[in-house]
Design goal:
mainly alpha, two-stranded parallel sheet, 12 helices, about 45% helix
C-alpha cells in the first residue's frame, strides 16, 4: 500500500513552488471540476474553518481579501472526492496492518462505500449489509437509555446533527458525541475556565491588529498555512509570536 499512487503526490515541503504544483495537479486532475465547485462553495475552509467567502462564496476571507486558499484545503476536499475503497483491500489487509499506516496513508486508501464491521475474534473488517446495520442498531437501542450513545462526524451537516440529537433524546439518552470531542474537548474546557467561552473569540480583524500571538500545541505551517501569513505580517510590524508545543 505504500506504493499507492496518491502517495507520490504528497508534498514534502510546507510552502513555495512544490505546494503550488500540488495545488495545480489536484485542480487540473479528473476530479478538478468537482474540486473547483467545492472550493468556490459558500462556507468556510473544510480543513481549518478559515473564511472562504461566507454566504457569497468565492476565494475571499471575512475581510474581503482575495485568493484565500491553500494546499491544505485542496487536500481535504480532494480526499472526500476520492474513489471508493475496493472491497479486496479489507480482505487482504488486517487490523494490525491498518494500524501501522499513517493518517495520510489511511486517507489515501479512498472513501468507505458501505458499512463495515469487525466481528469478535476476527482481524479483518467485513462488509455489512444495511439490513444487518438496522438490526444491530435496533438491538442496541433497546438497552437502557444510559447505555445508548451516538458518535458522529463533526463535518456532518447541521440538519443531520439536529435529527440525530432528536432521535437520541427520544430514546432518553443525552450521550451524544462526535469527532470534535476528541479534537477540541480539552481546549473547550480550558477556554471556558479562562475566558468564559468554550469557543475561540479571536477574529481575523483583531488578529491583524495584535502585537503578540501565543500558539499552544499548534503546528501552524502544516495545519494552518494561511495563519502563517498573518503571523509573518505580525512579526514584520514588530510583534511577537510565542509558540508552546504541548506534549500529549
Amino acid at each position: 500500500m505504500n506504493n499507492h499512487p496518491h502517495h507520490q503526490n504528497q508534498p514534502e515541503t510546507g510552502g513555495g513552488m512544490p505546494l503550488i504544483k500540488y495545488w495545480a495537479e489536484k485542480t487540473l486532475s479528473p476530479i478538478g471540476v468537482k474540486l473547483w465547485q467545492t472550493l468556490n462553495h459558500q462556507s468556510a475552509c473544510l480543513s481549518c474553518a478559515w473564511g472562504t467567502g461566507g454566504q457569497k462564496g468565492g476565494f475571499v476571507n471575512e475581510m474581503g481579501e482575495y485568493l484565500q486558499r491553500c494546499a491544505k484545503s485542496v487536500e481535504a476536499i480532494a480526499a472526500e472526492l476520492q474513489a471508493g475503497i475496493e472491497e479486496d483491500v479489507f480482505h487482504s489487509t488486517s487490523i494490525s496492518q491498518l494500524q501501522s499506516l499513517s493518517s495520510w496513508e489511511c486517507d489515501c486508501l479512498g472513501r468507505l462505500q458501505y458499512p463495515m464491521i469487525l466481528r469478535s475474534g476476527s482481524d479483518y473488517y467485513q462488509r455489512l449489509s444495511w439490513e444487518e446495520v438496522y438490526e444491530i442498531a435496533a438491538t442496541a437501542f433497546r438497552q437502557a437509555s444510559e447505555r445508548v450513545a451516538s458518535y458522529s462526524s463533526g463535518r456532518s451537516s447541521n440538519e443531520a446533527a439536529y435529527l440525530l440529537q432528536l432521535m437520541m433524546r427520544t430514546l432518553g439518552s443525552n450521550n451524544l458525541a462526535d469527532c470534535s470531542d476528541l479534537c477540541h474537548a480539552p481546549s473547550g474546557v480550558g477556554l471556558k475556565q479562562v475566558f468564559g467561552s468554550g469557543t475561540s473569540m479571536v477574529s481575523l480583524a483583531s488578529l491583524k491588529q495584535s502585537d503578540c500571538v501565543v500558539l499552544l500545541g499548534s503546528n501552524a505551517p502544516a495545519n494552518h498555512p494561511r495563519l502563517m501569513n498573518e503571523l509573518l505580517q505580525l512579526r514584520d510590524r514588530g510583534g511577537r509570536v510565542i509558540i508552546k508545543l504541548l506534549r500529549s
